[in-house]
Design a protein that fits this description.
The protein has 86 residues and is mainly alpha-helical. The chain is globular. It starts with 7 loop residues before the first helix and ends in a 16-residue tail after the last helix.
Length: 86
């Protein structure tokens, strides 16, 4: 863990977005960093595809930057079982 200096305006943006999405300021910043990192590494992916990929990564144990760099991102949408089958 470390300290990252950000502007007062960005801190306020994080606070507002975090409150709106029920995340702490730190959790909101980390979310934006993950999305931004994946967007830079895989500019062909849409925001929706990145978010779906993050959910799959979380289900598989979490996002590992080494895995993102070493292998291509699966851009196929996840299969969701119908509600009655769950």
């Amino acid at each position: 863990m470390g300290i990252v200096k950000i502007s007062d305006l960005m801190h306020e943006n994080l606070r507002v977005a975090g409150n709106a999405l029920s995340r702490s300021i730190n959790a909101q910043a980390e979310h934006w960093m993950r999305v931004g990192m994946l967007a830079e590494m895989h500019p062909e992916l849409s925001h929706q595809a990145i978010c779906q990929w993050l959910v799959r990564a979380e289900l598989a144990g979490g996002l590992d930057i080494a895995g993102v760099v070493a292998s291509p991102v699966d851009t196929t949408p996840p299969v969701v079982a119908p509600a009655e089958a769950r």
